[in-house]
């Protein structure tokens, strides 16, 4: 039963989280034993605790379900298809061998589910950047054998950022297979998280955006897109703030490079703003508010902005209604909800 009226487009939600019961138990174990060095992780996942809140119970129930409650929630909210991704921080908190094995087993699990519900689900592959060469191999397996449509990385991996060349085999694999890489948020790295946590700002409220925007900006100014000019990135949350900054980033970056003020800020073939406009797509996950969505539409283009709900974290029927009511032409609204995702991720076409 849908409380949302049907629309002349498929609603494809492009940043939808899930998790296996096994991975959830491993997160709980990390919280109990304080076995990793990541204050942000404890803030994000510790709240489930021994006497979880109503919100935490609902989240925990929804995130581990793929074929029961989730499908009913999708029907109720008018969501035709979810693009699934393992929830943050995925397998990036484990040692390399554990993370690599878990990436493969969760990708298998997701692919089985997609095969049973090919019109309702598609998905992106999890990888463990802790072992970049194994991650590149898993991308190849996930795309060629499991038919997954791209890759998700949840920002920093144990405090390390993908602009470090040791990770670049991952970009090479994405570019060679021509699949997008979704840089999904994580809590700020251990180096930067404290001033966020002490005011409750570490997570989706703001810390995610600072961490993830910084991460992608680091990649751009490091020259990742000179080396991999066809690499396609996806960012959630209307681009994690970066679209708003493009003018000033370009202005200041030119000066920093010309004055040779920083060893790590190299001359680029294109300005950071050009790279962003040409190599990055954004979803509106969690930003169901017309002004930032329309701003992205204006500065990035109608073919660059995609719908996402961010299930199970933000399941709000009024937000779907608000996005249905965006002041866009019928053609642009169909691009936003449906055809941009179909093209970007090369989803199998379905009748509307
Ligand atoms: C939250 C939000 C958690 C998002 C997420 O993954 C997440 C949250 C752990 O509200 O705690 O993906 N989000 O993308 O906004
Ligand atoms: Mn998300």
Characteristic key phrases:
352 residues; alpha/beta; TIM Barrel; 6-stranded parallel beta sheet; 3-stranded parallel beta sheet; 16 helices; 48% helix; binds 4-hydroxy-3-methoxy-5-nitrobenzoic acid; binds manganese (II) ion
Brief overview:
The protein is an alpha/beta fold. The protein has 16 helices and nine strands. The strands form two sheets. A six-stranded parallel sheet has the order 4-5-6-7-8-9. A three-stranded parallel sheet has the order 1-2-3.
Write structural notes for this entry.
The protein is an alpha/beta fold and 352 residues long. The model has no long low-confidence stretch (mean pLDDT 96). It has 16 helices and 9 strands. The radius of gyration is 19 Å and the shape is globular. The chain has one domain (14-342): TIM Barrel (Alpha-Beta Barrel), CATH 3.20.20.140. Helix 14 (290-300) links the parallel strand 8 and strand 9. The longest helix has 21 residues, at 96-116. The chain binds 4-hydroxy-3-methoxy-5-nitrobenzoic acid and manganese (II) ion. Manganese (II) ion binds at residues 15, 17, 184, 236, 285, 310.
